[in-house]
Each structure stands twice: as structure tokens, then as C-alpha cells.
């Protein structure tokens, strides 16, 4: 009997251990979180990986970066290469420069596709969870939801404008677009490509839903405010060629610019260039970078380090004539390397990262073009002159066109002057491919003695093998 | 610019003619720094080990204690010394209560000799001498930086950028580390009832490590970093301390405890007709690791003070126009001045085991176990998965009908069980895992987070069902003991990191991806070949054979030939072994020295992009098909000789071919590079591709991976090795219990099936130069692969003394 008591005691103590077990195991490791609180969801936007259009691999306490979205730079018409200066270009950049159908190595992670879809996961995660997060007011959480939707729209907009045909109202309902990813489901296979119309509808819907809830004030150039939201919706319409719709949104964005905690204004290059680019120096990186550049509304940048430092991509001399010799933007280019040795053509040395997100110069240029396209040539000229006055001495900044079409062409050229050798021109080439005003133009690229011609099919990147071999449902472009 | 490049460059520019260039190249070629490397950077490895053990005690208390000291000198000039003290005590408190207590304490001090940034010594340029005839260090600044860059940089920064490896040895990082570990382990056995025992085992362990590394301000890397953060205006402005060295400290602590309580019952009745054993218990464990490390620049070990610098600015805003940039011509500070970590794992297990034997012949047993760990990032439902097994055995030799005089005992066994692996806690589960990602640009909008690992709510346990049949036998008067096992293991829902569809946001993730089947046989035998008074000879043989096959593959299957040919040999393909190697059919070099292979239509292909999956063929498995060892033991009077031969047979490997075929030659490479294609016609005598200096030309004109993945570079990996040979002699003494002298040689002989002097055991496939999909630029930079040293023979001499 005495033994029995002992036995029962031991058995009982073992049972006690089992019951305390769940609590014992429920410890939270330090340094890791599961997304639960308002602070977590807010923090997911404050992630340096989302700053650039580039591949990134998250690791604890940081991330490693991969290739950036640099193909637009080498596909734009105004650039040329020189065989002696091409060694630092990646094979995909050389292929894209030649406007070849197949650009990527078979096992190469394609930045132009992946960079956007990698970021998109985070936004979908926020969209799914933020409203039920702990902490934060309902209004704050709705603002985060709106910000994530606006970001998701931007990701789809970018990837659509690299891998699908330019928007054409007549064929958009049948032209293949890109997959729409609206659920964070990492281990599943993505669905097939939706049509260009469906993707644009999705983008416009996300943005339209988001705008009322977006933060009224721009608190940081790394967060989407209502200003950036209006801008992005305007840019989407602009890209679709719906210039009157675009103008409403872009005007609204411009009027909201002052709702900002960070300075928002154009730089006067007539003043700044002497500080940024003293005549004696050939060194790159002369403009303020990310957080301090007052011309940027929301940062989504593409690193230009590789081009700015290696003199591999040049401005084709045929395009130099679009600049007035007094245009301060010419100082963004150099014809000598850092050591002062001559290079064959002008190469862009600044900025070292170009913002593809909402920015004030692009806002001015889009508004001017929308006004010109909708018949308000006077308004367009006023805006354009205000802008040009910040880029060159006022005696050459004047705009004198009276013909609407000539004015539109001049504004498109102004866009090129502003953005030559940054890749932003590529999106204009696509947009204008359906525009009778610009039809019949042939674009060529030169590298040494070799010449390449852009065909309509190659306004669209083919789906990388890396993507379609994994997911055969994602069909290729011609 | 390296010295040999300077000669070629001067010749190209016409500064010197060919004969002078050749003369200078010849004089470089006559230099060999191998003996200087051994003299200045290496030491002979030596391990000394001293142990003293004592034991004693009586019926209530007995003890066993040992004190040990080990000193280890490694070839790379690192030294370590270890002390440890162990004491085991047994207490028999009452006949029914027994207690044992093990206490141990150890202390280890190590000092590493670490030449930061030095090229690997086994591929160091042979002509780069380290010292002159008088033993004074020689400058190798040319190997670090082109003097056209270095001299102006020195002038602008006023910092010397010379690099003299022998001087550097005095400023090099010295990593001093000291580790203390203490452990207490107590066991309690209480006999509760006849056959019923309670057993408890309790362990507590704690350890701490402190280490520091100091890199002197005269160290090349410290000097170079200061130059990175110097702007000449025109006088140098230093953004990092120009005096003082780099001081890194680390402190780590670990504590762990474990508690195991179990009840066992062992009883028999009816004169051993029925025998029952039951075991049930729980185990609880906790491991906690914490650590902190700091990194300080400008530290003066004499004053114990450091010079502050603006870390925030240097990390977030690049320094423009530094004397030499570290980041695209600008300079940014990388790394953290403080890192801290804490990890805790907790486990709870329940287990039980039951065995029943009838009539000493028929045995049934069953076991079950449940393991649980921290719940973070996983779901409780994923954790309560018991693993179990059931088995039966039959002692045939105890049957009355069994009359085989040669067979002393014979037992047949059969077991079946389900084992499992839960998804690793934290690597994937129903929740996304975030990690903090602070960055100074975001300070106004709140702390930053990134998704570290995505959720995968479809994860399930990896399960393995094992069917095992076995036989244990003793034959010929117990002269031969034999064990044979045959098994069939079916693993389903294998867990690992696999490629994902990037369109959904991840390149790869932790997932279930397929099923694997392993079948095999394992055999071991011990035979006492000769047993006599003065001479004994016994042999132990082990033999195993395993075949495995991926029976199902979900998720993302490899769809490009490159993914099949990649180095690791881990391309999972349904229907093939999990360690399959694939290759291309070699078609020789073309008349420009570019590699070619045949596709499945028999046409020659020059570019890997033109290959399809059908052009790749199976070349064997990288896992040995047969493996095992043979030990022979001879004893003659007081002499004893034993040796062990191990063998691994039937598998394949890729030759570790040189990967250097373009770009700058900056380190020593394999000798057969000399036999490469040099001029048209050479393709008839060699398979080694041409060297093309320009990396982009090399990359766009040929696919070197065709050569590396070709079938000519697949060879047998079979080998056998005489792993150790020991000879000992027991010295007859009157006053000692035993005095034994022994000598041992390890890694004595090696036989390999390949003729390329590759030691398959030491061969590392991961280092193989097969880079797939790499572009022209990276192929140009790809470094030559140098074969690691063969496993070296080493010698041990020992003396065992036991006192009476």
C-alpha cells in the first residue's frame, strides 16, 4: 500500500507536467515576429527592400540585393554602346540593347519580372491582415490598407508595361497582360495572364479605392500619400492615352503637393548645377540622393551606379542636338571619365539612382502634355515654361509653338531631355507607338559598326524562361 | 597590376621587346614561394593529450574521476589548449534507492592566426616571394592595388598603402577565445515495487565564451579602410579614425537543462514463460543561447579608449569623392557596431515502450513517441503527431525442433514503424515571419520590418514508414557473430527549401516536395578466426548497400538542362536517385577551342542555351552504392596489431576541372592548364578549352559549362582507404597494473578508381567550378579551382599507464 501511494504520486506529477506543456512551449523568440500589430503592418512599408526596383533576398538583420530593373535604360532609343566599353554590361543588358527576343539566360532570375512580384507579396500580406491588426485606430488601419492597395496597383502597372503590349483600347480586352496576384500565397502556382484590360481595370480599381483613405500629408518620400495616389492614377490614365482623365488626377496631385512634411519643389538647376557639378569635376553622383531630393514625391528607384560609374551606356550623338547648349541638364553628362580621360560619347553621370515613382518634374511634364492634348495649348506652354525656367537660363526657356501637334512633340522631346539615358523614355516609346502623331518612326541602336532596329514585337519583353518553365500557365509573347 | 601582367603590358606597349619580356617572365617562373609559405605562415601540426584517471570506493559510494589536458597546434598556426575535469559518483543510499552524480568542468583557450584578406595559400601565386635572403619582408603591394592608383592615393590621403605580408603577420588579427563549460548530471533510480522502477535524470549545463580580435592600425585593411573614408580637400579629411585599430569583442552564454522522468517495469512469471517490459516517460528540455558582440574602430589597446566617428551618416549617406571608393566610387560604411542575439528552444517529449516475450521465443514490442517544440510560427495541430513502431521477433534456436549444432543462436526480427519530421520551427508554417529591418531613412515613419519567410499553411509532416527485417546469428561455437538487416523506407512529403513560382512573390521556400524510397541491406559480422593462447586473429566486416529513388516530385520540377547539370548533384528528378548526376555527351573542341557536345539528334552544340532536357543523360549517382569497412585484429603475446580498411564503391563524381579559361590570371592554377587548346588543330589532341583573355568575348563565343558538365568529366568515385593502423605493446611490469605503448598511423593508403589523383572522400562538389547561367562577366572572373590538399597521413604515439 505504501508503494502504491508513491506510485500514484509519481503518476500525478507526470500528468501535471503534461497539462503545463502548452504554456511552456509558447515562447516567442526574440528578433522575429508574426504580423499581428499595427506597428508590424506599418513597419512593412518601412522596408529598404521596397525602395528600389531590384531583386532582393531577405535575411535576418538585412537583405542581399540582386539585379535591378535596368533593361529600360538600354532599350530606350537615345542610347548607344561602344564595343570597347561594354565589358561591364550584363549579358541580358547587351541582349536587350539589341532588342533580341530572348534576353535572359535560362536560369537567370529576371529582375524586370521578379522585382515587382517580390514586393507585391508584402502588399498583399498587408491587405489581407491589416484591418484585424491589434492596436491603431480604424482610420490608421484603413490608411495602411489604402497604401498597400496603391502599392499593389503600382507593381502591376510596372510589370504590365514591361511584359504586355502598350494599351490599345481596341485590342486591350484580348491582348495578354500579366498575372494578377492579390493573395499572399507563396507556395502556390500563380494563375495565368489576364488581359491588358483586366489588369488596367484592377489597377484603376485598387487606386480608386485607395485614394480616399490615403494619408492627406506626405510624411516621407518613402510612403504613399494622397498626393502620390492621385499622381499614380493620373499616370495610369496618361499611359493609357486617356489624357483628359489623367489631367484631373494630375492637377489634383499638384494642388496637394504642399500638404507635406518634407520640402516639395523643383530645383533651379541654374543655381544648383554650380554646386552639384563644378566644371572641374567629372565625378558621378552629383545630385542629392533618396531622402533629401525635394523633387521626389514617392521613391521607387532604379540604381544607375553601374552606368554612372563605368561609362558603358552613352547618349547617341544624334540626340545631343535636342539640347540647347545652355541647358543645365547637359551637365548631367560627361565626356571624360573620373580620371579625366576622354570617353567616346557623352555618358550620364547623375543621378546615381533614378526615381521611377512619382516625381515633380514628371508631374509638370505630364500635365503640360495633357493640357496640350486636350486643346489647352496656352496652359501647356505656361506650365512648360515654368518648368524649363528651372532647367536653363530664362532666355532659352521660352516656348513659342502655336501648332498643337508641334507643341505635343516638343513636350515629348522635353521629357527625353529630362530623362535621357535613364530608361524612362522606354515607357514613352511604348505609349506613343499607338499615337498617329508619332507613327512611322523607326528606332535604331548602334554599337560600333553594328546597327539594330526596334520591331513592334520588341516593345514587349518576352516572358523569361525562368518564369514560364516554373509555371507553364504563364504563356509567352510573340 | 600583378608583376607578370606588368611585363606583358610593357611588352604590349612596346616598352620592352619580346626577349626581355620572356627573360623577365622566366625569372618570375623560377621563383617558388612554397617553402616560405611553410616557414612563415605554417607550423607542423601537433596534438598532445594527457589523461589521468582514478577510481575507487566501496559499497555505499564509488567514484571515477579523470583530469585531462590537450594541446593542439594546427598547420595554420592556430593553437588551442583544453583542460577538463570529470567526476562520476555512485551512491547506493538504500538497496532500493540509487543515485549517481556526474560533474564536469572544462576550459578551452584558443588563439587563431588569421591573415585577413590573404589569398588562399594553396593557390597563392608561386612567384610572390615573402622574404629576401636575409628574412626581411618583401612588398606585395602590386597584388593588392595597381601602383598608378596606389601612389596618388597615398599622396592624397597621406596614408601608406604598401602591403608586406610578413609585416602584416605582426598586425594581423589575433582571435583569442576562451570557453568555460560546466555540467552537472544527476540520476536517481528508485525501486518502487518488484520489477517497477522510477528513473529520473536531471541535467544542467552552462557555458560562456569570451573572445576578442584586435587588428592593429598598421594592418593593411585598417589603413585601406581609412583611405576609403578620406576626402582630399586638398588636405586629407578623415571620416574614420586615422589612428587606433579595429577591436571586436564577443560574449556568448549558453544554458541548457533537461529533465527526464520515466517508469519502467520488468517482470516475468510462470517461470519466465511470460515476460513483460514497460517503459513510459517524459522529457523536457530547454536550450538558451545569448550573445553580444561589438565592433569598434579607432581603438587604442593601451589607453583602452576609442576615437568616436559618425556612424549614422557614414552608413546612410555615402561619402562622395573619397580618395578610393568602396562602393561605386563612393564610400559607405557597412556592418554593425553591435549585434545581439538570443535564441531559445524548448522541447517536451512523451514516450512509451512495451515488450512481451512468450516462452523465451516469441517477442512482440511496440513503441510510441510524441515530440513537441516551441510553438512560434507553427500550429499546435502540426505538433501532436505521434511516431510509432511495432515489431516481432522469434528466437528460432530456442525451439525444441531446432537441432543445428553449428548454429548457437538464431533470431529473426521484423519491425514496422512510422517516423516523422515536423517542419522546422520558424522555417515555415501558417504564419509569415517578420524580422526587423532598421534603416536611418525611415526614422520619421516608424520601425521597419521585412517578411523573412512566407507562410505556408499547406506544410505537413515529413513521414517515413520503415519496414525492417533482420537476422541475428551466432555460429560455430560463437566463433562467428552475424547480423543482417534488410529495409524498405518510404518517405513521403519530403521537406526542404525548394524553388517557388516567383510570380507569387518568392524565389524559394520551405515546402513538402515529394516522396523518396530507400531500399537497402546492412550486414555486419565478427569472426574469431584464430583463438589460441599466444595468437589471436579476429575480423570485423561491415557491408551496406542502399538504393534510393525519387518516386514522386511535386512543386517545381527542373525544366532546364542547366538545373540538372548544376554542381551539387542534387537535381531531384522523378524516377532517379536523389543524388543523381547528369551529363552531356562530349563532342570535342571546335577549331577555336570552344567546347561542344552532342544533342539527342547527334548534332554538335556549342551553346548551352541551345540544349533541351532531352540532350542530358543520367550519369550515375553521387551516393555510394556499396560501403563498409573491414577491421583485422592480430594479437601475439603482448603485441597487438589492428587495421581498418573502409570502402565506398559504385558511385560517380564530376572531375574538379580547372575553371579558369578567361580573364586575369591572379592565382596559381592546376598544371594541366598548360595542355589547353592553343592553336587550330589542337582540338585533335586536347579536350581542354582555350584561354580567351576578354571575359565578354569568352562569354559570348562559347559555353564553358558544356565542358564542365560533359561525360568525359564524370569519373568513378569508388575508393578504399587504409584508414588506420595501430601497433601496441604491453610492457611487462611488476608494480603497475598496465603499461601500454602504442603507435598509430591514420590515412595510410588510398586506392581510387579514378586516374586523376582525386581523393573522393576529400573532394568537395560544392567547390566545383560549374557555374551555370553565369554571364560573360562572371565567367571572366571565375577563379581557377585549386584542388584541396589530400587527406594527409598523421601519426600518433601514446602511452597508457594504469596504477594498481
From TrEMBL, chain A:
Residues 362-453 form the RagB/SusD domain. It comes from Pedobacter hiemivivus. Its main location: membrane. InterPro entries: SusD-like_N (IPR033985), SusD_RagB_dom (IPR012944), TPR-like_helical_dom_sf (IPR011990). It comes from the Bacteria. Pfam families: SusD-like_3 (PF14322), SusD_RagB (PF07980). Belongs to the SusD family. It is found in: Cell outer membrane. Keywords: Cell outer membrane, Membrane, Signal. SUPFAM superfamilies: TPR-like (SSF48452). One of its GO terms (cellular component) is cell outer membrane. Residues 87-237 form the SusD-like N-terminal domain. Gene3D superfamilies: 1.25.40.390. This is RagB/SusD family nutrient uptake outer membrane protein.
From TrEMBL, chain B:
Its main location: membrane. Keywords: Cell outer membrane, Membrane. GO terms for cellular component: cell outer membrane. It is found in: Cell outer membrane. InterPro entries: Beta-barrel_TonB_sf. This is Uncharacterized protein.
Amino acid at each position: 500500500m505504501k508503494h502504491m501511494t508513491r506510485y500514484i504520486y509519481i503518476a500525478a506529477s507526470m500528468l501535471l507536467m503534461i497539462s503545463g506543456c502548452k504554456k511552456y512551449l509558447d515562447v516567442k523568440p526574440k528578433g522575429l515576429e508574426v504580423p499581428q500589430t499595427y506597428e508590424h503592418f506599418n513597419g512593412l512599408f518601412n522596408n529598404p527592400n521596397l525602395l528600389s526596383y531590384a531583386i532582393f533576398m531577405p535575411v535576418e538583420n538585412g537583405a542581399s540585393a540582386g539585379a535591378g530593373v535596368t533593361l529600360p535604360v538600354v532599350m530606350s532609343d537615345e542610347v548607344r554602346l561602344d564595343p570597347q566599353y561594354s565589358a561591364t554590361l550584363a549579358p541580358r543588358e547587351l541582349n536587350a540593347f539589341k532588342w533580341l527576343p530572348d534576353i535572359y539566360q535560362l536560369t537567370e532570375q529576371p529582375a524586370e519580372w521578379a522585382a515587382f512580384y517580390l514586393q507585391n507579396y508584402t502588399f498583399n500580406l498587408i491587405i489581407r491582415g491589416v484591418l484585424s491588426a491589434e492596436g491603431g485606430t480604424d482610420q490608421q488601419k484603413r490608411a495602411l490598407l489604402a497604401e498597400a492597395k496603391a502599392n499593389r496597383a503600382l507593381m502591376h502597372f510596372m510589370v504590365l508595361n514591361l511584359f504586355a503590349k502598350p494599351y490599345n483600347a481596341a485590342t486591350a480586352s484580348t491582348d495578354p497582360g500579366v498575372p494578377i496576384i492579390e493573395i499572399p500565397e507563396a507556395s502556390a502556382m500563380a494563375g495565368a495572364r489576364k488581359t491588358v484590360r483586366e489588369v488596367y481595370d484592377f489597377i484603376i480599381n485598387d487606386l480608386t479605392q485607395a485614394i480616399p483613405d490615403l494619408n492627406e500629408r506626405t510624411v516621407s518620400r518613402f510612403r504613399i500619400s494622397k498626393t502620390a495616389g492621385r499622381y499614380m492614377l493620373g499616370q495610369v490614365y496618361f499611359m493609357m492615352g486617356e489624357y483628359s482623365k489623367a489631367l484631373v488626377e494630375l492637377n489634383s496631385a499638384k494642388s496637394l503637393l504642399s500638404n507635406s512634411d518634407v520640402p516639395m519643389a523643383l530645383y533651379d538647376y541654374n543655381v544648383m548645377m554650380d554646386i552639384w557639378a563644378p566644371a572641374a569635376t567629372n565625378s558621378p553622383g552629383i545630385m542629392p540622393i533618396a531622402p533629401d531630393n525635394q523633387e521626389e514625391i514617392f521613391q521607387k528607384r532604379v540604381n544607375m551606379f553601374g552606368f554612372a560609374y563605368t561609362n558603358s551606356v552613352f547618349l547617341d550623338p544624334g540626340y545631343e542636338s535636342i539640347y540647347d547648349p545652355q541647358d543645365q541638364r547637359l551637365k548631367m553628362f560627361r565626356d571624360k571619365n573620373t580620371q579625366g580621360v576622354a570617353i567616346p560619347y557623352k555618358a550620364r553621370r547623375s543621378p546615381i539612382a533614378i526615381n521611377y515613382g512619382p516625381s515633380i518634374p514628371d508631374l509638370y511634364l505630364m500635365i503640360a502634355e495633357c493640357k496640350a492634348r486636350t486643346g489647352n495649348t496656352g496652359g501647356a506652354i505656361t506650365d512648360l515654361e515654368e518648368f524649363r525656367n528651372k532647367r536653363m537660363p530664362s532666355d532659352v526657356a521660352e516656348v513659342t509653338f502655336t501648332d498643337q501637334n508641334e507643341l505635343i512633340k516638343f513636350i515629348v522631346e522635353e521629357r527625353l531631355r529630362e530623362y535621357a539615358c535613364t530608361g524612362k523614355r522606354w515607357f514613352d516609346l511604348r505609349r506613343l507607338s499607338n499615337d498617329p502623331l508619332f507613327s512611322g518612326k523607326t528606332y535604331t541602336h548602334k554599337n560600333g559598326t553594328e546597327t539594330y532596329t526596334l520591331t513592334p514585337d520588341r516593345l514587349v519583353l518576352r516572358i523569361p524562361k525562368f518564369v514560364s518553365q516554373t509555371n507553364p500557365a504563364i504563356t509567352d509573347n510573340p | 597590376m600583378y608583376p607578370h601582367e606588368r611585363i606583358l603590358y610593357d611588352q604590349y606597349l612596346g616598352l620592352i621587346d619580346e626577349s626581355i619580356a620572356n627573360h623577365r617572365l622566366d625569372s618570375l617562373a623560377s621563383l617558388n614561394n612554397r617553402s616560405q609559405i611553410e616557414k612563415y605562415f605554417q607550423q607542423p601540426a601537433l596534438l598532445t593529450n594527457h589523461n589521468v584517471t582514478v577510481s575507487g570506493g566501496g559499497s555505499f559510494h564509488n567514484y571515477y574521476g579523470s583530469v585531462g589536458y590537450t594541446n593542439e597546434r594546427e598547420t595554420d598556426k592556430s593553437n588551442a589548449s583544453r583542460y577538463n575535469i570529470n567526476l562520476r559518483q555512485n551512491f547506493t543510499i538504500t538497496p532500493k534507492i540509487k543515485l549517481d552524480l556526474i560533474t564536469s568542468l572544462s576550459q578551452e583557450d584558443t588563439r587563431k592566426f588569421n591573415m585577413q584578406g590573404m589569398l588562399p595559400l594553396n593557390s597563392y601565386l608561386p612567384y610572390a616571394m615573402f622574404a629576401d635572403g636575409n628574412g626581411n619582408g618583401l612588398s606585395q603591394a602590386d597584388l593588392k592595388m595597381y601602383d598608378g592608383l596606389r601612389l596618388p592615393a597615398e599622396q592624397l590621403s597621406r596614408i601608406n598603402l604598401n602591403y608586406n605580408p610578413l609585416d602584416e603577420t605582426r598586425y594581423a588579427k589575433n582571435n583569442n577565445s576562451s570557453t568555460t563549460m560546466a555540467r552537472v548530471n544527476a540520476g536517481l533510480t528508485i525501486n518502487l515495487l518488484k520489477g517497477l522502477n522510477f528513473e529520473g535524470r536531471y541535467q544542467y549545463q552552462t557555458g560562456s565564451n569570451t573572445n576578442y580580435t584586435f587588428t592593429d592600425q598598421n594592418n593593411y585593411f585598417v589603413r585601406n579602410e581609412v583611405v576609403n573614408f578620406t576626402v582630399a580637400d586638398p588636405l586629407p579629411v578623415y571620416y574614420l579614425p586615422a589612428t587606433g585599430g579595429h577591436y571586436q569583442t564577443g560574449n556568448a552564454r549558453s544554458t541548457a537543462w533537461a529533465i527526464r522522468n520515466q517508469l519502467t517495469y520488468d517482470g516475468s512469471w510462470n517461470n519466465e514463460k511470460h515476460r513483460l517490459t514497460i517503459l513510459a516517460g517524459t522529457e523536457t528540455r530547454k536550450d538558451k543561447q545569448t550573445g553580444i558582440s561589438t565592433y569598434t574602430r579607432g581603438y587604442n589597446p593601451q589607453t583602452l579608449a576609442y576615437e568616436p566617428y559618425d556612424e549614422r551618416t557614414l552608413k546612410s549617406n555615402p561619402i562622395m569623392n573619397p580618395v578610393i571608393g568602396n562602393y561605386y566610387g563612393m564610400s559607405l560604411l557597412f556592418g554593425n557596431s553591435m549585434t545581439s542575439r538570443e535564441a531559445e528552444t524548448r522541447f517536451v517529449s512523451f514516450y512509451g515502450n512495451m515488450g512481451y516475450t512468450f516462452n523465451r521465443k516469441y517477442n512482440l514490442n511496440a513503441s510510441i513517441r510524441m515530440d513537441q517544440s516551441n510553438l512560434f510560427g507553427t500550429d499546435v495541430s502540426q505538433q501532436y503527431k505521434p511516431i510509432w513502431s511495432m515489431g516481432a521477433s522469434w528466437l528460432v534456436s530456442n525451439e525444441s525442433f531446432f537441432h543445428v549444432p553449428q548454429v548457437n543462436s538464431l533470431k529473426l526480427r521484423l519491425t514496422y514503424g512510422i517516423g516523422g519530421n515536423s517542419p522546422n520551427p520558424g522555417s515555415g508554417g501558417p504564419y509569415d515571419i517578420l524580422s526587423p529591418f532598421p534603416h536611418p531613412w525611415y526614422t520619421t515613419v516608424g520601425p521597419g520590418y521585412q517578411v523573412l519567410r512566407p507562410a505556408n499553411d499547406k506544410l505537413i509532416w515529413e513521414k517515413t514508414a520503415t519496414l525492417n527485417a533482420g537476422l541475428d546469428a551466432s555460429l560455430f561455437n560463437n566463433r562467428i557473430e552475424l547480423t543482417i538487416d534488410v529495409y524498405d523506407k518510404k518517405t513521403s512529403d519530403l521537406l526542404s527549401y525548394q524553388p517557388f513560382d516567383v510570380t507569387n512573390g518568392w524565389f524559394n521556400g520551405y515546402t513538402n516536395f515529394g516522396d523518396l524510397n530507400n531500399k537497402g541491406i546492412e550486414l555486419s559480422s565478427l569472426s574469431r578466426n584464430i583463438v589460441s593462447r599466444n595468437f589471436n586473429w579476429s575480423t570485423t566486416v561491415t557491408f551496406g548497400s542502399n538504393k534510393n529513388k525519387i518516386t514522386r516530385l511535386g512543386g517545381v520540377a527542373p525544366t532546364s538542362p542547366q538545373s540538372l547539370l548544376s554542381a551539387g548533384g542534387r537535381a531531384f528528378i522523378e524516377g532517379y536517385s536523389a543524388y543523381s548526376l547528369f551529363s552531356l555527351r562530349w563532342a570535342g573542341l571546335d577549331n577555336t577551342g570552344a567546347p561542344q557536345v552532342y544533342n539527342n539528334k547527334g548534332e554538335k552544340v556549342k551553346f548551352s542555351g541551345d540544349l533541351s532536357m532531352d540532350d542530358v543523360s543520367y550519369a550515375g549517382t553521387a551516393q555510394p552504392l556499396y560501403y563498409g569497412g573491414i577491421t583485422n585484429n592480430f594479437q601475439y603475446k603482448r603485441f597487438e596489431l589492428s587495421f581498418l580498411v573502409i570502402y565506398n564503391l559504385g558511385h560517380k563524381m564530376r572531375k574538379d576541372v580547372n575553371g579558369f579559361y578567361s580573364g586575369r590570371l591572379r592565382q596559381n592554377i592546376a598544371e594541366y592548364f598548360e595542355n589547353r587548346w592553343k592553336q587550330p588543330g589542337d582540338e585533335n589532341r586536347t579536350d581542354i578549352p582555350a584561354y580567351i583573355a576578354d571575359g565578354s568575348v569568352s562569354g559570348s563565343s562559347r559555353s564553358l559549362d558544356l565542358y564542365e558538365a560533359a561525360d568525359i568529366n564524370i569519373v568513378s568515385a569508388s575508393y578504399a582507404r587504409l584508414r588506420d593502423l595501430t601497433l601496441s605493446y604491453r610492457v611487462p611490469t611488476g608494480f603497475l597494473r598496465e603499461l601500454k605503448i602504442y603507435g598509430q598511423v591514420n590515412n595510410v593508403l588510398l586506392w581510387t578508381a579514378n586516374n586523376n589523383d582525386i581523393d573522393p572522400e576529400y573532394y568537395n562538389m560544392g567547390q566545383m567550378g560549374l557555374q551555370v547561367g553565369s554571364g560573360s562577366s562572371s565567367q571572366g572572373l571565375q577563379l581557377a579551382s585549386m584542388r584541396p590538399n589530400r587527406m594527409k597521413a598523421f601519426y600518433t604515439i601514446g602511452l597508457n599507464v594504469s596504477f594498481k
